[in-house]
Write a structure and sequence with these properties.
The complex is a heterodimer of chains A (about 260) and B (about 260). Chain A is an all-alpha fold and about 260 residues long. Helix content of chain A is about 80%, strand content about 0%. Chain A has twelve helices and no strands. The relative contact order of chain A is 0.15. Chain B is α/β, with parallel strands linked by helices. In chain B, strand 1, helix 2 and strand 2 form a beta-alpha-beta unit. The chains are: A mainly alpha (about 260), B alpha/beta (about 260). Chain B: This is Molybdate-binding protein.
Chain lengths: ~260, ~260
């Protein structure tokens, strides 16, 4: 530490260590449970590979949707003011506290065959229930708040100074947005997208309630883990560690790319 | 902003821990007026019947309180193996009871259950018999073959020489029933007792006995029971005439 740089009070280390133990100990216990001798066989079984592939594809699709829909949402929340904005912000964050099963029920009530939009979708020839599209919708629903909050935070931290200058020099609102605002908050957008991806990857409750569970179509890795637990707890543990490893790799790689920006 | 976020995170954490505490069956409620407590772990399908038996048992044994933990049989076995404070275990199949080995004291079969087709009340796909489940365009939901209700469904499929393509293979009967009740599925394979418990939310269509699969439910008091006599009394009550009468009412067969 450089001289003169304010130090963290020493007592802060104690609760920090306690928090780290709370998070890391169960993860370590899980890794200790892994039957390493059979690990390769367990995580490369047909059903595991199909589930992992489906999980990656759907989580990427959901992250793209989150970026496309969440970025404008964060901009509206951070840069505009109108009556009801605090209420809107609270509503957007609701999926964070909603039990995922409830999210699944809500999605069924909206996109299900007898849901709010069920008739419209049927006329349009779209069947959402039991399809991979349903998985993506469920993941997007639960992951969106992660992107919106981190991007909104980044937008507020970045402030409006540069935007004001650009506008005063005659740049149109769209030009300001694309050339000034978004480049400034790109790291925030990126970490938000990583969070959203990680949340989508781990999504379980809304998926099983809304999309069902069928190999190759809707049975993502978390659903496969839950099912394997019924017959082969070893396989469930091995797949959980695989899911953790994927999440860790994504987060680490993303952090490195981000610092290189 | 960061303070506000901290506050939000704290609220979320508190909510989470509060919910966990409420739903955690291992947290005992202190109640001095009930000195005797019996904890029964039972398969989910037994809930309506056991809830009723629980209150009549409490009436017959003043000062006794019966607590239930209902879940999938394999979940319950996992909890018992990890030292959960269960006095009695009632399983939806013999396989899960056998997993407990000597920890289960003299298991006795006390009920049977068979499968039935459940359809939404308006029966949108016009399902009238077992063969219809294999008809293209019928959105069929079953349990996954890895869980008991799915294994039973596979037996029926093989027995009837059918080849159906479910749109979803669910984790539990409750999930299958949910998909039928909400009208997402045209038909689902569930237990007779589930159709009965669902009332008019689903319509039941019988499966011919010749091809139907039967699950046998065993019950046993457990080695580590807090009060072995009380646990044995519950097992005797369920296997006795009063228990059997109630189980029949809820659609269970005689073991």
């Amino acid at each position: 530490m450089r001289a003169g740089e304010p130090a963290l009070p020493r007592w802060a280390w104690l609760p920090a260590a306690g928090g780290a133990v709370l998070v890391l100990l169960p993860l370590a216990a899980l890794v200790a449970e892994v039957p390493w001798r059979d690990f390769a066989g367990l995580v490369t079984s047909d059903s595991a590979r199909v589930a992992l592939g489906l999980s990656l594809r759907t989580a990427v699709a959901s992250t793209v949707l989150c970026v496309l829909l969440g970025t404008p949402m964060a901009l509206v929340l951070a840069r505009s003011s109108f009556r009801g904005l605090p209420l809107l912000r609270a509503a957007v964050l609701l999926p964070l506290v909603l039990p995922p099963v409830v999210a699944g029920i809500a999605l069924l009530a909206t996109f299900g065959r007898r849901g709010l939009l069920g008739h419209v979708l049927e006329v349009a020839g779209v069947q959402v229930a039991f399809s991979t599209l349903a998985v993506v919708l469920a993941q997007t629903f639960v992951a969106l708040p992660f992107l919106v909050t981190s991007l909104e935070g980044a937008l507020r931290t970045a402030g409006r100074r540069y935007e004001t200058v650009a506008a005063s020099l005659g740049a149109s609102p769209t030009r300001v947005l694309l050339r000034v605002t978004l480049p400034l908050v790109l790291p925030g957008l990126f970490s938000g997208a990583v969070l959203a991806f990680a949340r989508a990857l781990g999504e379980f409750g809304a998926t099983i309630t809304f999309a069902g569970s069928l190999q190759g179509v809707t049975r993502t890795l978390p659903l496969e883990i839950y099912l394997q637990r019924e017959v082969d707890p070893d396989a469930a543990v091995a797949l959980s560690v695989l899911l953790m490893a994927v999440a860790v790799v994504v987060i680490v790689v993303a952090r490195r790319d981000r610092s290189g920006l | 902003m960061s303070l506000r976020r901290l506050a939000a995170a704290t609220v979320v954490a508190l909510l989470g821990s509060g919910l966990a505490a409420c739903s955690d069956p291992s947290v005992p409620a202190v109640d001095d007026s009930h000195p005797k407590r019996l904890t029964v772990y039972a398969a989910s399908s037994l809930k309506p019947a056991f809830d009723q038996l629980g209150s009549t048992f409490e009436d017959a044994h003043p000062g006794t309180l019966v607590d239930f933990n209902y879940a999938g049989s394999s979940d319950l076995v996992a909890q018992i193996e990890q030292g959960a404070p269960a006095d009695v275990f009632a399983s939806a199949d013999t396989k899960n009871m056998e997993k407990l080995g000597a920890a289960a004291v003299d298991p006795a079969d006390f009920a049977t259950n068979t499968l039935e087709i459940a359809v939404p009340p308006d029966n949108p796909a016009h399902v009238t018999r077992l063969d219809d489940l294999a008809r293209p365009g019928v959105q069929l939901v079953t349990c996954a073959p890895q869980v008991p209700c799915g294994a039973a469904a596979a037996l029926v499929e093989a027995g009837a020489k059918l080849d159906w393509k479910p749109v979803s293979e669910e984790q539990s009967v409750a999930d299958v029933l949910g998909k039928v009740e909400s009208g997402e599925a045209d038909a689902g394979l569930v237990y007779v007792t589930d159709v009965k418990a669902a009332g008019d939310k689903v319509e039941g269509i019988e499966i011919p006995a010749a091809v139907n699969a039967t699950n046998t439910y065993p019950i046993a008091s457990l080695e580590g029971a807090k009060d072995a006599d009380l646990a044995a009394a519950w097992v005797a009550y369920v296997t006795g005439p009063a228990g059997q009468r109630v189980l029949r009412e809820y659609g269970f067969g005689r073991a």
